[in-house]
Design a protein that fits this description.
- By secondary structure, the protein is mostly beta strands.
- It is built from 2 helices and 32 strands.
- The strands form 6 sheets. Strands 15, 17, 18, 19, 20, 23, 28, 29, 30 and 32 form a 10-stranded mixed β-sheet that branches. Strands 16-21-31-24-25-26-27 form a 7-stranded antiparallel β-sheet. Strands 1, 6, 8, 9, 10 and 12 form a 6-stranded mixed β-sheet that branches.
Length: 408
């Protein structure tokens, strides 16, 4: 294993239009580009590695955002490489920010989109998972700048009834309302080795139709195994406390992974999680849902630094749901300063009340709402992806946020 620390910085800013292709309208500077000759002590033009090898280098980031990571390489035996961020972290975690990149027989650039990187110096390791590979360069380009969230909503939790304070009823036509939703972009794996490419502003993947929001995952689309959409209120709205409701139908089909959830507004890149907190309200995987009847399970879970799934000690519960794919059900949480309760069609089935310290309870801080449909990944793809499906639809009637109101 070689360890080289890089101090120079050239960074690119991409200004993009609203379509899904994320076309480059302007490049203000050169990308952050590491050549093999710069990375090598010997000044070699190629770096060669075999399965099990690691190569460490330092990446200085001056703009928080989502990046395209490109590796120029070649391999005669289909080498797989991946990049690990924050290799010096103290939590014994592996932050895979690219998923597997497959080298081709000829020298060519292989890239992944959407890798999250916060400002600062990033100790990164390139891992060779299989095969032998020759690497010519590694490049980072900024695709999307991170944006501050301008609107924070702190809901009252005392009172006799619930009062609606924010919602999207999806009564429009075409693309989702961009005053409420932003798009997460890319195919970097999303921390779960997911294969889908999340697009931006693409009707095929996210659209309002007949009073609903349809998030559609499509197979063999745009040159990707799967495309889909992931909408977030990050950069638009964040919420603390109150009742949050998702009224939805979820898709059947082995390999699907539909979710309506909350993630801490403090998230910048993977080291932010799970310190920032995560509340899963609607979370369903297709292999737990009967393809014919639509009967399956919904999972409600709270992830914190003290309790989260990569430690295997997450705290959550599940509930059976009939006709998940054909009947709208209401998935909700009631979030108080000392506990979070989960409901399915008004039936209470889970309470999280670990609040002794910040590691157990980050939920006094604002959270963003996220809607997404993944295909495959560590949980959704645990039993494979049914090859007989070419698309899936996750349909939402509304998303609503309430606060308590005193009787008049």
């Amino acid at each position: 294993m070689k360890r080289i620390w890089i101090a120079s910085l050239l960074l690119a800013t991409w200004a993009c239009n609203s379509n899904q292709e994320a076309e480059v309208l302007e490049v203000e500077k050169d990308p952050l580009h590491f050549l093999a000759s710069d990375l090598s002590d010997a000044g070699d033009s190629l770096l060669t590695f075999s399965a099990g090898d690691e190569f460490e280098f330092q990446v200085p980031i001056t703009e928080t955002g989502r990046y395209r990571v490109s590796v120029e390489m070649q391999s005669a035996d289909s080498a797989l490489v991946w990049l690990e961020d924050y290799i010096l972290n103290t939590d014994d975690r592996s932050y895979n920010i690219t998923g597997d990149l497959l080298a081709k027989p000829e020298m060519s650039v292989v890239h992944i989109d959407g890798s999250p990187l916060d400002t600062g110096s990033h100790p990164i390791s390139l891992h060779v998972k299989q095969g032998s590979v020759a690497i010519k360069s590694i490049q980072f380009k900024l695709l999307r700048k991170w944006k501050e969230t301008p609107h924070f909503h702190k809901q009252e939790t005392e009172g006799d009834s619930w009062e609606l304070v924010w919602s999207d009823e999806f009564n429009g036509e075409g693309l989702p309302d961009t005053s409420k939703w932003s798009y997460n972009l890319g195919n970097w794996g999303w921390g779960n080795n997911e294969p889908q490419y999340y697009t931006e502003g693409r009707l095929e993947n996210a659209r309002q139709e007949n009073g609903t929001l349809i998030i559609e995952a499509r197979k063999n689309d745009m040159g990707q195994d799967w495309t889909s959409a992931r909408l977030s209120t990050q950069g638009k709205h964040a919420f603390t406390y109150g009742r949050v409701e998702f009224r939805a139908k979820v898709p059947v089909g082995r390999g699907t992974w539909a979710a309506g959830w909350l993630l801490g507004d403090a998230y910048r890149d993977e080291i932010s999680w799970p310190y920032c907190g995560e509340i899963d309200v609607l979370e369903c995987v297709g292999y737990e849902i009967n393809d014919t009847t639509g009967k399956g399970l919904n999972h409600a879970t709270c992830h914190t630094r003290a309790y989260y799934f990569k430690q295997g000690n997450q705290i959550g519960s599940e509930i059976e749901v009939d006709s998940m794919n054909s009947v709208f059900h209401t998935y909700a949480i009631e979030w108080y300063p000392d506990r979070i309760e989960a409901y399915l069609d008004e039936e209470h089935y889970f309470t999280y009340d670990k609040n002794a310290n910040e590691l157990e309870w980050p939920f006094h801080n604002p959270q963003n709402i996220i809607l997404n449909l993944a295909v495959g990944g560590g949980w959704g793809g645990a039993k494979g992806i049914d090859p007989n499906w070419d698309k899936h639809q996750y349909i939402l009637d509304y998303v609503r946020v309430y606060q308590r109101k005193a009787a008049e």
